[in-house]
Design a protein that fits this description.
The chain has two domains: 199 residues, no CATH class; 82 residues, Pseudouridine synthase I, catalytic domain, C-terminal subdomain (Alpha-Beta Plaits, 2-Layer Sandwich), CATH 3.30.70. It is 59% helix and 8% strand. The chain has twelve helices and three strands; from the N terminus they run H-H-H-H-H-H-H-H-H-H-E-E-E-H-H. It has a three-stranded antiparallel beta sheet. A hairpin with a 2-residue loop joins strand 2 and strand 3. Helix 3 packs antiparallel against helix 4 and helix 4 packs across helix 7. 30% of the residues are buried.
Length: 314
């Protein structure tokens, strides 16, 4: 029965040639829960295509074209078909009744063609810009799972526009309450996995960086043994932005102590690694103890972009 349920889901959401089974109340009851497996197949094919392109040394544009086409080929364009109808209906600016007629029309209008061309151009550009490292491929695989979990969840939670069609068929045959709970769990797990792969470290580092902004005694983030009249400085902003594998850290202050920025970055890295909380940083600064803060980050990539002087100094 489980295998039949999976086959029903793939028959609905994919163009992959698989054995056909008759749809009935038993194998359709939880078919919505198997929709994310189609996304897992897309993610697996992304991994395979990335490996082939790496082995062949394929150019980025060709690699991106494969990434762009894989979901459409796996699903047979079922999502794009509905999206094209929606573009035609929305762009018509017609009354709701007329929009319903446009959605039922099997022909493709001008707005649908324009929308699909724009979507493929944007998708190709994004796919070509993607660096296919492990975290990115895992995150995209989970994204495919998440979007299909959301589609199934929508069928269980939202009212349907009409009482005919495949969505209505699956909605009426499904155990909507239990299937909805399973799909919600799948959404949470997929989203948590994507966040763990890329979102949390950058967010935690940014939260830690904000703790340094303002006027503080920065003795806790300077190299021990250096002398200065005062260790109080004002940091105007400390911004952290993640771009793929690169994390940009930009600091503006009225002055810097020796290795101050490197120690601040090292402390933010400690926060991202869970070795301290961003909320601990004010207490670390107040303690003026260098051993409580993070390590001194390597100097690679550190440089000064601007320098300002008061007019009376010049």
């Amino acid at each position: 029965m489980v295998l039949e349920t999976i086959l029903v889901a793939f028959a609905m959401f994919s163009a992959i040639p698989l054995p056909r089974v008759d749809w009935n109340g038993r194998n359709m009851r939880y078919a919505l829960c198997a929709f994310p497996l189609v996304g897992a197949v897309c993610g697996g094919l992304w991994w395979g295509w990335a490996w082939v392109c790496g082995w062949l040394g394929a150019p980025e544009l060709l690699r991106g074209a494969g990434f762009c086409l894989i979901p459409a080929l796996v699903t047979g364009g079922i999502h794009l078909d509905g999206c094209a109808d929606t573009w035609d209906a929305l762009a018509s600016c017609a009354p709701p009744e007329k929009k319903q007629e446009i959605l039922k029309d099997p022909r493709c209008g001008a707005f649908a063609v324009i929308g699909l061309c724009a979507w493929f151009a944007a998708h190709l550009a994004l796919c070509a810009a993607l660096r296919p490292d492990g975290p990115a491929l895992w995150a995209m695989g989970l994204a495919f799972v998440l979007e299909r979990s959301l589609s199934g969840l929508a069928i269980t939670r939202f009212p349907l526009a009409k009482k005919t069609g495949l969505a209505h068929t699956f909605a009426t045959a499904a155990d909507r309450r239990r299937a909805g709970r399973v799909l919600l769990g799948e959404c949470v797990l997929a989203a948590a996995g994507m966040t763990a792969l890329g979102g949390v470290p950058g967010g935690v580092m940014a939260a830690a960086a904000r703790q340094f902004v303002g006027t503080h005694d920065f003795a806790a983030v300077r190299s021990v043994g250096t002398e200065t009249r005062t260790t109080v400085r004002t940091v105007h902003y400390f911004e952290i932005e993640r771009r793929g594998d690169i994390i940009d850290c930009r600091v503006c202050a009225d002055g810097f102590l020796y290795n101050m920025v490197r120690a601040m970055v090292g402390t933010c890295i400690y926060a991202a690694e869970g070795k301290l909380n961003p909320e601990d940083i004010p207490a670390i600064l107040a303690a003026r103890n260098r051993t409580l803060a993070g390590p001194t980050a390597p100097p690679d990539g550190l440089y000064m972009t601007n320098l300002w002087y008061d007019e009376d100094v010049l």
